[in-house]
Amino acid sequence: MENIALIESFSEFKDDKLIDRVTLMAILEEVFRSALKRKFGEDDNFDIIINPDKGDLEIWRNRVVVEDGMVEDDNSEISLTQARKIEPDFEVGEDVSEEVKLIDLGRRAILALRQNLIAKIHEHDNTNIYNQFKELIGEMYSAEVHHIRHRVVILLDDEGNELIMPKDRQIPSDFFRKGESVRGVIESVELKGNKPAIIFSRTSPLFLEKLFEQEIPEVFDGLIQVKKVVRIPGEKAKVAVDSYDDRIDPVGACVGVKGSRIHGIVRELGNENIDVINYTSNDQLLINRALSPARVTSVKLNSETMRAEVMLKPEEVSKAIGRGGHNIRLASQLTGYEIDVFREGVEEDVELKEFSDEIDAWIIAEFSKIGLDTAKAILEQDLDDLVRRTDLEEETIREVVQILREEFDQ
């Protein structure tokens, strides 16, 4: 293959991959120097001149002229007789530059050159893609569903970049069709081998935060700040918002008249229930607001253990805990405090773990999952509600209730 023909094929990469001229020249020189090292052992005495725009390539080997029979290194030295075949007036000690044709490298070396170039350009592309998406971590992004598998959805963006959305980054109610446009956030980017793995997420709290930025003008303009977002994807979320302008009601602005502003966000998230609360640096007040819709009687904090004892009227307890314990779990995540619920007016109660001799540990764990850790917490619940909220059989729950009632002589 002639030099020009080879360079023309290299120029195709430049056009296809949109590689700038300087980068392409650097990659080409690196590839050729690798080939020269394999052929001659060293490449320090070679000059490589590349002009990919014109399809020009020249390789010159520089050697020193020595007396006949005194050549010790064929790569860096040339005998006087051989030098004078190039130019008849060369003398010992002078430098000789001789052009090296690609054909001199051998057919196998030329094929290796092209393969090496392809690998280097792919590596360059992958590095660029990695760096591009590294800058986009946490940002909203749209891509089209390309392939749906059992545990993952593969998406392609407008530039043909592949994004991966694992099952656990999908909202449980999500249902996708090939060709459908999907919104999410870039959660992470990793290099696996030389290929970037771009993880796309719809379950990240950042996705909800970015939806607020897109859908609510005051958030986009910076008049309202989203302080913190916590989510149980597809189920429930809590968003703490604040405004530095006293004239703006941050919660009202985010929710809109009759929920008009937040409705689109709820629909995007598969009808995820979103509580928007006013942020405050007062931890007691923040916990009070975070447990909404429950009305809290009092809050006692222990800042060393980061635990909060919250007193509520008995009828407010189930509201504070929420379905499946979602409300109290999210309130804890939002405030940073482990929240313990106590019923107002109840002087005596017994933690459920005290009944471990009579009640199996896995049954106690099932009640704890929905925020019921004491005997009276369970006794105050409706039987049908307990069956619905736990994975326990009705007969098992009846036996537990009977044991607890005997403790309180009921």
UniProtKB/TrEMBL annotation:
Primary location group: cytoplasm
Family affiliation: Belongs to the NusA family.
GO molecular function ontology, one term from the record: translation elongation factor activity
UniProt entry keywords in alphabetical sequence: Cytoplasm, Elongation factor, Protein biosynthesis, RNA-binding, Transcription, Transcription antitermination, Transcription regulation, Transcription termination
Protein name: Transcription termination/antitermination protein NusA
Transcription factor NusA N-terminal domain boundaries: 6-125
Originating organism: Croceibacter atlanticus (strain ATCC BAA-628 / JCM 21780 / CIP 108009 / IAM 15332 / KCTC 12090 / HTCC2559)
GO biological process: DNA-templated transcription termination; transcription antitermination
